[in-house]
Amino acid sequence: MNGVEILVLGGLIAINEKNSFQSIGEKLKLSASQVYYAVKSLQKRGLVYKDISENINRNPLASIKIKKHNCYEFLIHGLKYVFPMEMGAPAIGVQTLSSELIATKEQILSNTIYVWPYGEGDTSGISIKPIHQNIPLLSLQNQSIHRFFVILDFLRSKNSRDNLLGKEELKRLLKV
């Protein structure tokens, strides 16, 4: 499992864009071939499947469906082992691990501000290495992508209250 696969999975879930490998690649700042190979790998891992009832004459990506329960199980149990949270020095970047970015209820968990380092970000805080290098830029461009990867950082956190909030929000997002 690599960061590109998680980025593509996030794109399929958060953007819900299935026009073509090229169009989702453009939205995720990846090549069409990277998206294609990531989708194939996600299929092998049982996180997405090809719905053969869909008409795929012109667009094979349209037949790809998310296995929501499998994604939920993998993300809440396996993500923190595959992509452990790596904290660094204070930096300027895009805010993450902030409950106000994802929670539907007012629930502030910490006063500490965390960021994915990014020179064009607008927040300073403790840096956290993102799952993929494109996440900070994409988060500035798309609120759904930002929210999805903030949820994943809650799941990667070593704090059990953070994990609980991440699980609740992922369940709500995936509707499982």
Give an account of the 3D structure.
The chain is α+β, with helices and mostly antiparallel strands and 176 residues long. The protein folds into two domains: 3-81, Arc Repressor Mutant, subunit A, CATH 1.10.10; 85-174, no CATH class. 50% of the residues lie in helices and 15% in strands. It has nine helices and five strands. Strands 3, 4 and 5 form a three-stranded mixed β-sheet that branches. Helix 1 crosses helix 2. The longest helix has 15 residues, at 160-174. The mean pLDDT is 88.
Determine the strand fraction and express it as a percent band: 5-15%
When the domains are counted, the total is 2
* Overall pLDDT level: 88
N-C termini distance: 23 Å
The profile of the biggest β sheet is:
3 strands, mixed
Number of strands: 5
- Which spans of ≥5 residues are poorly predicted at pLDDT below 50? none
Question: What is the CA-atom radius of gyration, in angstroms?
Answer: 16 Å
Tertiary shape: globular
What's this model, at a glance?
This protein has 176 residues and is α+β, with helices and mostly antiparallel strands.
Key phrases:
176 residues; alpha+beta; Arc Repressor Mutant, subunit A; 2 domains; 3-stranded mixed β-sheet; two-stranded antiparallel ribbon; 5 strands; globular
Question: How is this fold's topology laid out?
Answer:
Layout: H1 3-15, H2 21-28, H3 32-44, E1 48-50, E2 64-66, H4 68-77, H5 79-82, E3 87-96, H6 99-102, E4 114-117, E5 123-128, H7 135-141, H8 143-156, H9 160-174
Parallel strand pairs: 4-5
Antiparallel strand pairs: 1-2, 3-4, 3-5
